[in-house]
Amino acid sequence: MRELHEKRLMTHQADFSVPIERVGRYLHFRWNFVAPVPVEEARQRLQDYFTRMGYTLASSGDALVMKRGSLARSMLKWSPRNLAVELTARCAPAGDGTAVTLELRLNRTGHTIYGAEEYLHAWELKEAETYLRGQPVDFAAMERFDRRALERIYLSIGLGVAITIPFAVLIFAIGRPMLTELGIGSPLRGAILGGLIGIIASSIMWLFIRVLLNPQKY
């Protein structure tokens, strides 16, 4: 029943559209809405919400600035929530409520950003509006999504290695004598064969990651 509820929630969430722009090595996300609460309450609730998402407060001047993840952490242990992001929240009076602008900057240095990573960050921004409206937010579903993305990365690596092994044996069996006949010996021969195997392995892993990190496949 929980999985069915999560699947319905994910299908519903897939309908929203959070603008995403690529600027240099960054991805910029932006979400605007009007919350039916005063400015100070909106700021506090935003801080509470994103703290639950793993963010830490960096600045609380005119704008609320919070950060999560780092380049080093995302390199050592990849997951969508370990990526280096900076969130800026601006609040302004709007009638009886508060106009909220959320801007998120994701540093993609050293990373290829896949659909699941964009999806989760956009989902979190959209759910901030739900939270400020006093409606329930399924924090556990977003946490499961983050863990599932990590599990699928490991699965992609395992499948890539498993499929590469027979290719490696074939390349070695065929390529070694061919290169020897061409007068290419060690260590150049080993470098050529190793390079070919490496290209095949990385290509297979990339294909698996791209497919498995498609949020519509979750």
Write up what this structure looks like:
The protein is an alpha+beta fold and 218 residues long. It folds into 2 domains: 2-137, Alpha-D-Glucose-1,6-Bisphosphate, Chain A, domain 4 (2-Layer Sandwich), CATH 3.30.530; 145-217, no CATH class. 54% of the residues lie in helices and 21% in strands. The chain is built from 6 helices and 6 strands. Strands 1-2-6-5-4-3 form a 6-stranded antiparallel beta sheet, covered by helices on one side. Helix 5 packs antiparallel against helix 6. The radius of gyration is 23 Å and the shape is elongated. The relative contact order is 0.13. Residues 1-15 have low confidence and may be disordered.
What structural class do you assign from the helix and strand content? alpha+beta
CATH homolog superfamily of the largest domain: START domain
Our count of helices gives 6
Strand order of the largest sheet: 1-2-6-5-4-3
DSSP, total strands? 6
| Share of β-strand residues | 15-25%
Average residue-wise pLDDT: 85
| The CATH top-level class label of the largest domain | Alpha Beta
CATH architecture of the largest domain: 2-Layer Sandwich
Query: The biggest beta sheet, please?
Result: 6 strands, antiparallel
The SSE order reads HEEHEEHEEHHH
What is the rounded Rg? 23 Å
Number of domains: 2
Q: Overall 3D geometry?
A: elongated
Distance between the termini: 16 Å
Low-pLDDT stretches: 1-15
